[in-house]
Design a protein that fits this description.
The structure is a single chain. The chain has 15 helices and 5 strands. The protein has a 5-stranded parallel beta sheet with strand order 2-3-4-1-5. The longest helix has 26 residues. The model has no long low-confidence stretch (mean pLDDT 91). It binds zinc ion.
Length: 337
Amino acid sequence: MDWTTFIGHHRQRQWFANAIGSNRLASTFLLVGPSGIGKRTFAELIAKTMLCTTNDPARFQPCGHCEACVQVEANTHPDVLRVRKNEDKTELSIDQLVGSKDARMREGLCYELRMRPYSGRRKIAIIDDVDTFNIEGANSLLKTLEEPPAGSMIFLIGTSEQRQLPTIRSRCQVVRFARLTDEELATLLVRLGKVSSLEEAKRVAATAHGSIESAESALNETLSELRSKLRESLIQSPLNFTGLSQEIDRHLKSIGTDAQPRRERLKWILDQALDVFRNSMRGNLGLECDLDARLRLSPSELSTLIHRTEEAREQVDRNVSPAVLVEAWTADLAASF
Ligand SMILES: [Zn+2]
């Protein structure tokens, strides 16, 4: 991967290219934007750009062939430190940042960041899933963010600025990323070999809100079946909320017992509902809409449904049991119909 094959986010690239070229680069960055749009890949590419031993970083084009480039690509460069939430956990663990209890500050990312760079250049830390920081985890990082080791760069990656603790936000240069355009996403799907044709890519991209994660879900056939079922139930009036809640429950059970995939799927389900409500809103305002997914409710009723569904979506990551959440959400929907 290099900047020529990286898709989208031109403004952010230009900003970094200028900052590196003019030597005005800060050390700590908070990259925010929806998930699945390439923020982590972006940080990886900056790391490659900064560590390439053939091309000067100011050229903003890592060679891709030197040992450093190859190592960054293979996740084996000793000066690139990566941390992200373990899949079976709901939070980024403090141990990953400052070491386990009996080795506090003697291991973990903050400790390693202070070591002399093996390459003699710099250390770069990429910390993903910072939305899930608890206060203790965030606090453990503050000192490092305040006084980053000379030459080091730290990238924090999250989905929105508002979700970060103010103490973290204020210590970082915030770089905002927008969703990919449908066209960019379609190109990416083709490039990653996820689809068999550009046509299919465009069709999938049109429903994926600029996110590769959403696109991958859309590609899953079970999901498209589930989507039609959900649409069908959601446009029924009055809403059969017991049926809807059972349908979702059954589906969530069918994907296994792991909490994380279930949460991701539930978010996807709520996104489908949001699609239906927003689509109906467009239709009711006289704009173009998908007639098969249109609920004839007033704009204020629809905005209540949208608001409640967005709220439910936020709650998914807060450890609320999916079953409880679905029940409360569908009951509230039923009450608004
Ligand atoms: Zn290189």
